[in-house]
Every structure is written in C-alpha cells, then in structure tokens.
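Project standup — Tuesday

K.O.: blocked on the structure for the chain from last sprint. Re-posting the sequence here as requested.
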Amino acid sequence: MGDSRMSGVFPILVTPFDEQSRLDEESLRRLVEFSIGAGVHGLGLALGSEIYKLSEHERATLTRIVVGQARRRVPVVVNTGGAATDLAVLYSRTAEEQGADALMVLPPTFAPASAEETRDYFRAISAAVTVPIFLQDTSGAPVSGALARQLADECEHVRYIKVESAPAPLKVAEAVRQAGDLLTVFGGAGGNYLLEELRRGSQGTMPGCSQPEAFVAIWNLYQAGDVPAARAVFERTIVPVNRLAGLGWGAFYTVHKELLRCRGIIKTATVRRPTGGSLDAPGWQELQDIINGLSNGG
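H.V.: unblocked you, prediction finished:
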C-alpha cells in the first residue's frame, strides 16, 4: 500500500492471548475484522499491543496475521523501536518483510542516548527500510518539535509523528507549528485529547481498540463540522472507559480486553505477566457499570 498521507482513526490493537498466554490467532483475526468493519482508517501494533512482551518470532507472527487479515483494506503500522540501534533495525526490516505499511519508532530509552546517538538511531532505521516511519513521542521518551523537524530533514522515511507526551494538545500544536510541513501529526495516549488535538492541527489518532465505532463516529462528526455532537459522543462513550483504563498499564490492558471479551470479539481478557497490576474490587464493579451503561446506550 503506497503512502498517500495516512490520516484518521488508527486503533492500537490488543494482542489476544489464550488462558496459557499463547497468541490467540482466531481472536486476533476477529479483532481485525471488527475494527475494519467499524470504519477505521488504519490499524496499529504497538505498546498497547503488549508488543514489548513478545518474542521476535511472535512479533513477526502478529504482524503477518494482522497484515494478512487486513488484506490491504487499511494500512497497518507496527512499532519497531528497540533498546539498541541494531535491534530496532532488525525489528523494522522484519516488520516490512511481513507486510507492514509503516513503522512507528520510539527513541532508545533503556540506556541514556545523546542527541547525536538518537539521530544516528533514526538515520539507521530509515536507511534500512522503504516504508514510512512514525516518530513516537511519549512522556518517557519525548521528541520535541525541533528534533522532529531535524529528523524529518535527515531521514528520508520519517514522515509522521505520534505525539502523546504531556500536555498532549500543546505538544501536538508544537509539532504542527515546527514540523507540520514535513510531518503528518497524529495524537495518541488512548485518544484522551482527540478533540483538542484536532483543533490544534492533528490529522489522526491512535486510540485504544475496544470502541472503534465510537472513535470513527467522533472523527466523522468533527470532519463534518458538528463539534458539539462529536463531543457528546466522546463524553458518553470514551470518557468513562478511558478514565478507568488510565489507572495504570495493568488497568489499561484489562479494561480494553475485558470490553472486547464482553463484546464477543476475543475469547479471554488474559494479560501477559507481569501485568503491571490490574483492577481492584471497586474497579471491577466500575468496569461492569461502564459495560452495562454502554450496552444500554448510555
């Protein structure tokens, strides 16, 4: 699939596991179909997919299955960042070989990297592939607007950035202001600030995957100019889920997987250990209340 300026709703898919923590291919294929059927504009495999918990073989298998099931109906973006440049290059080449339409790369974070080493890292990855690259900006590995522009200038394939460091709407505005002529800016962070990011020039979002139809509805309403209706859908459907999922990584995975399990999309809500914690007893009740509310259209 050629790069024709990707934009829109690109949910980050969870990785379904069975009760023995093995990849559940049937559930994964169903999740891809569920997402595409909801009208999403692309799919992502990244930190929200527990990709850092997967072996190299599992990463390649995950990408191959999602790309194969998508059948080029929408582009697939795969996170290929690594703790070392050579590792990130390996992940990136493998993802491209498995059919990924674009890559998303987090700066090296395990060991401190100088500005020059970070630039070398991205230059090496760009030189090793032929598909577009999303820079990934997070609070743990921020990419300033100035650095994003420098990387876009130096790296042929760096043409997108996913911005999710805090405060996300202001960081989106900074990226658009400093590099918007070279980079297409997406928001992330679960879609928490989607409307604020759109107002500041973002061209897409990479949210959680448990409510793709809601994010597509919000996107369509905003593009049609009906911001009040877009906000109403956001407040009714996204806010309750994201508030609970925002209690920590363990809560994030548990909430989105349990929602998908209850919707009949994946078989189990298994999170690969260590889980980073999960919901406490009140949290489980709050999740059930949210599920009941969504089921009743409230």
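K.O.: great, moving the ticket to review. The beta strands are 8-9, 43-45, 76-79, 102-105, 133-137, 158-163, 184-190, 204-207. The longest helix spans residues 227-245.
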